[in-house]
Write a structure and sequence with these properties.
By secondary structure, the chain is mostly helical. The protein is built from three helices and two strands, in the order ααββα.
Length: about 150
């Protein structure tokens, strides 16, 4: 609804004021409560207010916007600091991960070498423990069928 257009003889509901000012209905309600404003007219359950409520609501919205600016700047600075700290933590964790990978690779190489040595030792033990077969005596020429 346009602000310039008169509504109901220059009277507005809280919802209409909120739409004109660009804020929530609860903000308009707080303005009415804080300034102890009385409705100029009541139509059913709807309370109608004059244009002073629009002016008061606008000033309230502007005050809130101005008061939020330092908080927003502080919030942005705080978030930037937190990001720097988190970036440092990420870098430290990445370095720790690289070191852990290097250690893991070294441990895997050592394990592979150990397994290789164990395999060779097992083969040697089998050779030593295997019963020695006696060599068969050479067959004579007439024993070829046996």
């Amino acid at each position: 609804m346009a602000e310039t257009g008169k509504n109901k003889n220059g009277l507005y509901t809280m919802l209409e004021v909120a739409k004109i000012v660009g804020c929530s209905k609860s903000t308009v309600y707080r303005v009415v409560k804080d300034n102890h404003l009385k409705a100029k007219k009541t139509k059913g359950q709807a309370k109608l207010y004059d244009e002073t409520l629009i002016k008061l609501a606008r000033t309230k919205v502007e005050e809130v916007d101005e008061s939020k600016e330092p908080v927003l700047r502080y919030s942005v600075e705080t978030v930037e600091k937190q990001l720097e700290v988190k970036d440092k933590q990420i870098n430290q964790l990445q370095e720790q991960l690289k070191m852990a990978q290097v250690n893991l690779n070294q441990a895997q190489r050592a394990l592979n070498q150990s397994l290789e040595i164990q395999g060779k030792q097992a083969d040697k033990i089998k050779l030593l423990e295997a019963p020695k077969k006696q060599a068969e005596p050479a067959k004579k020429w007439w024993q070829f069928w046996r």
